[in-house]
Amino acid sequence: MKFTLEEVKSGTFKARDAWWTVFLVDPLAGRLVVGTANRTSITPNQITWGALFLGLGSAGCFLMADWKWLVLGALLYHLSFVLDCMDGKIARLKGTGTVLGGWLDYVFDRVRVLTCTLALMWGQYHATGKERYLLLGVAVVFLDMLRYVDALQVAKVRRQMKGELTKAIEESASAHTPVFAEDLLREDPDLDPDEIKTRTVEVIDLQQEFRSRFAWYIRVRDWLRDHRVRTHLVSGIEFQMAVFIVGPLVNQIVPVTIGAAALLLVFEFAIMYKLWLSSRDFTRALAEIRGAESQPAPVA
Predict the structure, then answer these.
(1) To the nearest whole number, what is the mean pLDDT of the chain?
(2) So what's the pLDDT on residue 190?
């Protein structure tokens, strides 16, 4: 079976992704996936290992500290990330994904970030003697860890809120199965959030307060969605690319790393603020469910 580029795009590209991936990685990765899937028997796990080796090669270049080596290191890091995106695409395209493959992909990502950080910052410290590079190295590793831990915890808290609300509705003997507005909007982004509540199902909106405070966000979100870009504009991916590609290419590692770190923290605080607003919606929704449950049944 021969795969086409359109099949790769429709079957493996995420509905929304980091803007760096959408604009600077997917156009190349998609075409490489077509050739790799059609002409070779290379497995996703082999590509994952290839991405790791390229990342280690990038670290070796960063350790040399000279600008020409930094440029080569940046290019190798970008190619490593392209391969990192290819393994999942081929796994989804051929249906050959495994639990081990997902684990390898995650662990190798962290290994690549750690080794490249140590090499880049130690190389600059050794060449200049400036201790700020060592502090930057610690900050990069910490922020990379913070981003992924925070993402897992935010998802966990959202699942817990949904689970408690679902349980409360089931205990209230409601005739409706609860549906969450954010899930409906994820399936059909063109839905009007205000019209969702008119449906006959039990709809719970955990982003109502956020949208009421930031009405402009919907317009921005829609524009980004149309371009397949997620609203979290500076995530772990963009942070890595700034530190390991942009900074070395322009030979401005310190200001680029500090700027990227500041933007990453801004977006992380925005996520936490949005989660806090969702917790207020959760508290109100839970109180309404329990209040309705405590109301006496009407007398016939």
Answers:
(1) 88
(2) 54
